[in-house]
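tmp note - Lipoprotein
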Amino acid sequence: MNKTLRLTSLALGLGLLAGCGVTGGFLRDSISSQRFDFKMDVAGVSYVQSVKGSASTGSILCLFPLAGTLYEAAMRDLYESAKLQPNQVVMNLREDHAIRSFLGFYCNHSITLSGDVFQLSPAAPGAPKVSSTSLSQ
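out:
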């Protein structure tokens, strides 16, 4: 009986220390109705790759952050992983959040931004063009 009580207490203690969390996300472009107006005539648009960037920080009592500019750090990481070449853009941005709390004394906040890199092909003079409204999200 005493051994069972100890094991139950140990399991409960480890469960409390492990913390709990919440995750969520959304498609940023679908909310902002992002539209692209190109200053060049575009003959075509092709998918290149998917990219992502992330950042995380902690907060004491889940109120006082230990670092700032979480979005800025995630965007910097996203563009570093994209290594954009001339005439390339990142579109279809997605945003995922995760918060993990440890008994309310410490929280870990993380954000992951991901998107798709597209190559825009400039149109040659007299070639058919793609309108920027056809690329609106």
